[in-house]
Amino acid sequence: MNATSDEDLIKRIAAGDSLAMKSFYARHHVRLYRFLVRMTRREATAEELMNEVLLEVWRKAGGYEGRSSVTTWMLSIAHHKAISQLRKRSEEALDEEEGTGTEMPDDEDDPEVTLQKQNKSKVMRACMEKLSVEHRTILDLVYYHDKSVTEASDVLGIPENTVKTRMFYARKRLAELMREAGLDRGWP
Amino acid sequence: MIERKKNHEEDVEALLPWYEKGTLPDDDAHAVEDYLKTHPEDGSRFIELIREEVTETIEANEQAGMPSTAALNRLMESIAAEPKRAGAVVRERAGGFFTRLFGQGSASWLPVATAAACLVILVQAGTIGVLLTNPDVIEGPGESRSRSLKPELAGNNNEGTVLIRFNPNATAKDITALLNTLEATIIEGPKLGGVYRVRISNKPLKTEQIDAILKQMRERSDIITDVVSKGAS
Fold this sequence. Notes:
heterodimer, A: mainly alpha, Rna Polymerase Sigma Factor, Chain: A, Arc Repressor Mutant, subunit A, 2 domains, elongated, B: alpha+beta, 4-stranded antiparallel sheet, two-stranded antiparallel ribbon, 6 strands
């Protein structure tokens, strides 16, 4: 038996079918929540935003035109809401999130990284957490949410070429952070 | 010529993450495969680096955990508070009009739609004059005469329900936010006159607890114009 497609669920949601909304929730809420946690770094905020996004899906299902996949459409709503939320935070907090050149403190300032140097996986994940929100988000979209260049462009609202360069610089910055943490990947 | 070739290689290298994930269109994927054939060592090294990044990105996301089990209930309560839309089962006598009106789309329509809907109903019932002097007037389903928003209509106090009429200028977002704050849920409505039955608790409440909730509701006249509960002050 074929599973109901996301597009079919959206059509039913547009007609006011709350059962379809529950199915949609069951199918997508975990990845949506994780996307928002990774962007906002706050679980309570992410859960609140997740419900706002899904309520938006409920309200706007009738306007979904299928120009992008349902998950791309949903993540673009989520991205917009998360960015708005981040902007509401204090300038100081925003600078911390969006800084591109000062995310990585010295090893002396981050003993956790120092202690984990022997564990490449943990070091890489720790360095990923040091990336700016833009760089972390592009990695998540491509590597976890399996978004193509075009889809990532739709989610982020930026040109495709910018998606490619942002991905390149995210990976480059990750390599630099790992090098600073004592692990040289040999690239770039 | 050499510069152009180098630029082309860099362009192709930038596509490697998508190639590894299998999300490249065919022509781009062919370009990457050509590159990998001519640069086997660099290519396999880059792919290996990307696989590490993929593994750790997935791990990092999985460590982000799951939302609480209460999230779905909150979402469905918010949805229940939304205006009904075209195609949904309509129970109210005037529901067809409401759904056509509300089913047009965005929440920005709500204040206008609500006001217009209430106006039409009031004209039908011939109660505008009464309402102007007595805001507690409603009409129940199937009833043809006006009546006050009387406490006995609000149901048994032990059910923790109240009757509410929302301010026509309130947006769906405002209404949802207030209901969430009060942990209240719409369980019936709109009845004629724009009246909703709202559950304010799943367990019996003392009179003073109900009064406290009613007080909070009455303080938000920008969202709720009338509220009453049986036996409440």
